[in-house]
């Protein structure tokens, strides 16, 4: 089942598309609720939509999306097999970092998505998503450079969940040296899935 076929998620998506809870609603073209199967074994979580995502209303469709698809392919997955969303559903102006009050305003949508999707593995990509998920599950927060690629164990309302922070795929567009580490992060995801 996809999000479009699931009536509860369809209603949640509709709320997100018309949401005005924070200032990011003012500059967006479209909110980007996310997409993927429901339920979903894997939840990938970015920071916020970029220009292309804002135009199309879909997550990870720009350059970072191509890199993400390559990384998924390297471990035998396609984007159709994972749910992809972000901690903020609307694009910050000029792709600036999301502010704390914007992340907090959007957080209840993420919680509702997690409850519906019941993922076994949550993969926060980049420092903002990693911080938000670690806080949300009461895990120790650390710098993304310290915690990326580490398998963390948490408990959600529906059961045990693995949290596996990784670098954000966009990082290699301005720092290609991090590509091997990003690839290794996704190999860790494969290892975690193989053990399930
Ligand atoms: S970022 Fe989240 S809280 Fe802010 S307007 Fe968009 S959907 Fe609403």
Outline the structure in words.
By secondary structure, this protein is of the alpha/beta class. The protein is built from 9 helices and 5 strands. It has a single domain, classed as Uracil-DNA glycosylase-like domain (Uracil-DNA Glycosylase, subunit E), CATH 3.40.470.10. It has helices at residues 7-17, 24-27, 51-56, 63-74, 100-117, 127-136, 144-147, 171-174, 179-194; strands at residues 42-46, 83-86, 121-124, 152-156, 159-163. The protein has a 5-stranded mixed beta sheet, sandwiched between helices. Strand 4 (152-156) and strand 5 form a beta hairpin. The relative contact order is 0.16. The structure holds iron/sulfur cluster (SF4). Iron/sulfur cluster binds next to helix 2 and helix 5.
Classification by helices and strands: alpha/beta
Number of helices: 9
Strand content: 5-15%
Using the coordinates above, name the CATH class. Alpha Beta
Uncertain segments: none
So, CATH architecture? 3-Layer(aba) Sandwich
What is the H-and-E element order?
HHEHHEHEHHEEHH
Give the helix level as a range of percent. 40-55%
CATH fold title: Uracil-DNA Glycosylase, subunit E
Alpha carbon gyration radius: 15 Å
Bound molecules: iron/sulfur cluster
Number of domains: 1
Q: What's the end-to-end separation, in Å?
A: 22 Å
Query: How many strands in all?
Result: 5
Q: If strands are numbered along the chain, what order do they take across the biggest sheet?
A: 2-1-3-5-4
The largest β sheet comes out as: 5 strands, mixed
Quaternary organization: single chain
